């Protein structure tokens, strides 16, 4: 069957995935940071989109820049940045590589190759495009008990039908709900 692409996102109760650094911290503790919904512990490759990579890249080398789990991911697994070749050029930090050209075709080939899962975390635009292309195998959501009111949503108005099957759920002590869906 090959590798799976597993997308993990932080989501508000009203579906906002935009700028979680502005609303998630009342719920951000070690339990939430270690939740399976946020990161695929079995993943071998890390796949951020350009915007997510640039945000992580700006702070990851600094002691207080990124939380421990994100820092460990970047140190253990240099990322492959998708959809960035025209604006990012060569990713220089953390040994990152850039996917050029047809991102969907490149990721189809990567999925067929040997190895463990591919972790796609925090990249909303990339997650949407890979869902449309049928390339996301699991969608892991940490739904936070807060209504943000406005912002980018994972599934904006006009999104076509996206059939999902719940495969795991857990409620964390902060009230965050950890959900895993098969796509």
TrEMBL record:
Ranges of residues in domain Bacterial bifunctional deaminase-reductase C-terminal: 4-177
InterPro entries with a match to the protein in the record: DHFR-like_dom_sf, RibDG_C, Riboflavin_Biosynth_HTPR
Name assigned to this protein: Dihydrofolate reductase family protein
